[in-house]
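Possible regression after last week's pipeline update?

I re-ran a chain I had predicted before the update to compare outputs. Posting the input and the new output here so someone can diff against the archived version. Not blocking, just want to make sure nothing changed silently.
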Amino acid sequence: MPIKNRIAELQSEIAAWRQDIHRHPELMFDTHRTSGLVAEKLREFGCDEVVEGIGKTGVVGVIRGKSNGSGRTVGLRADMDALPINEATGLDYASQTPGKMHACGHDGHTAMLLGAAKYLAETRNFDGTCVVIFQPAEEGGGGGREMVNDGMMERFSIDEVYGMHNWPGIPLGEFQIRAGGFFAATDQFDLVIEGKGGHAAKPHEGIDPTVIASHVIVALQTIVSRNVDPVKQAVVSVTQMATDGDSYNVIPQRVRMKGTIRTHDAGLRASVPKRLEALAKGIAEGFGGRAMFDYHEGYPVMVNTEAETEFAAAVAQRVTGQPTAEADPVMGGEDFAYMLEARPGAYILVGNGDTAPVHHPEYNFSDEAIPAGCSWWAEIVEQRLPAA
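New output (post-update):
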């Protein structure tokens, strides 16, 4: 089954929605304009129910098929929020808000799911119910968790749920997916090294926390290289380091560090921070200082369930006419993980072509990916809930 003709006809209209959303990026849960636009479109399409305010600013639309003999409900999810980045694309529809940009393609995800919703509301060629989910705050706010905690799955009787992300580097309109752990858990840590400050000309009278911190940073590299099974994935990165002073001739009292831990299974997620804390404290004590460690759990590992992944890959093959490639594990995070913890389902990547990477000021979602993405979502519903 190639790209659906009706969706191909809608491409320019869907692209116009996408470019409008791109001009007006909104961060985290502050997606009031985007959420309002989505709700307006869903009502215009004739959705049977449109509910706003799920997970603060999330929107849910309900589309009932021609029949409901199956009694089943399939959820489709797109994210709506942008990033705090200054856009550098030079496009005529570039962000009109300094410091905010759709640098991850959520404008494209939202527009594609709107396109699929319009098609499904027109045709209703399925037996059951489709729920379209428009989520805020994927970029660090945990909007997926908020929608789940708001009782979305139970309220709309969702049995399984599917999501999609565009992916630069994958050929335009092609798909990749993998079963099991796909996107990593995204945890953070704060580490304070305390020594004894003093005059920089008399280092023997103090305990230099910058030296201790330097040894700690080097030692942390051994966690992945020597404590993690080589066939498993983990990342430990120190991303910030600052002292409590700014003088040339003062040894500071403290050094503060921040960083991230990325893992793909529960065992590593539990063991890596313990090893980090033990190394930091042992090294600090060895130099006569001390280390204070604080750990913050972020998004969990996003796990595609086996049967639903196989189904999603088969649907992608119907859309493209070629086998769906297996994706590599991704060390980035994705809060669709919370929805997949609540219900079985799968998350797929659709190719954005040879473009700038996501989270880059020159990134732009390719409108040429719209027909494939919309067709995949529509086929998910029509194949999972075949018309009686």
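Follow-up from reviewer: compared with the archived run. The two ends are 19 Å apart (CA to CA). Marking as no regression found.
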